[in-house]
Design brief:
234 residues, mainly alpha, Penicillin binding protein transpeptidase fold, 2 strands
Length: 234
């Protein structure tokens, strides 16, 4: 009985290192492509036809056997109540008009909180970061996704002005199961267009945003958070 010659240890090590180097290169390329892809300049002139989060939810509903109609009505920024614009910025990104896509102080506080709790509970993401995540990425949390999100956010802030970023965000953000954007949310929860939202109604919608699938306008927690937002608005 003949035996196959054993491969020298050095050759095994070289092959292993080559394999690791190839995997690392593929990982870097997978992240680096977000420096040029997807093209963002077109968002200055054209509204997105949908978002990655909408596609993710559709797949989720299909897997769970749910039949849910997606509610989504695009409106220009001028047709969204200034109260809602103010309330969302207060609730989600108070430094929106000043930062260049990243609120480093909020991120530091979020990191401290997550380290204290031992899990990823708090994000510290800006509106710009949330927007690129909704448009292009998976809602699943990972280091890779955060790097991709950072690259896209950096590009977004250099491609669009703040008003356009806010307009797109308010039109695509999730506001409940199957509800996307300010217009659909205003009609779903208050039976009025987004342009007619009052201060209190705007504060309620803003209070829902951190967990739109769990929070409802009539919940005690949302009312409590909305009261804080309302005081800051005044």
């Amino acid at each position: 009985m003949t035996t196959l010659p054993r491969m020298p240890f050095r050759r095994i090590r070289r092959l292993a290192l080559a394999g690791l180097a190839l995997l690392l290169l593929l990982y870097i390329l997978n992240i680096g492509r977000y420096l040029v892809w997807p093209p963002l300049d077109g968002l200055a002139r054209h509204n997105p036809p949908g978002t990655a989060l909408m596609d993710y939810r559709r797949a989720q509903w299909l897997a769970e056997g749910k039949s849910i109609d997606l509610r989504w009505i695009w409106v220009e920024l001028g047709r969204i109540s200034p109260h809602l614009r103010q309330a969302v910025i207060i609730a989600e990104d108070s430094a929106f008009w000043e930062h260049q896509g990243f609120d480093w102080e909020a991120m530091r506080l979020a990191l401290d909180t997550n380290l204290e709790r031992g899990r990823l509970d708090v994000g510290g993401s800006t509106i710009s970061q949330q927007l690129v995540k909704n448009l292009y990425l998976s809602p699943r949390k990972s280091i890779t996704r955060k790097v991709q999100e950072a690259l896209l956010t950096w590009r977004l802030e250099r491609s669009l002005d703040k008003d356009r970023i806010l307009e797109i965000y308010l039109n695509v953000v999730e506001w409940g199961e199957g509800v996307f954007g300010a217009e659909a949310a205003a009609r779903r929860y208050f039976g009025i267009p987004a342009a007619d939202l009052s201060r209190r109604q705007a504060a309620v919608l803003a209070a829902m945003l951190p967990a739109p699938l769990k929070r409802t306008p009539d919940s005690r927690h949302v009312r409590k958070v909305a009261s804080v937002i309302l005081r800051r608005m005044r």
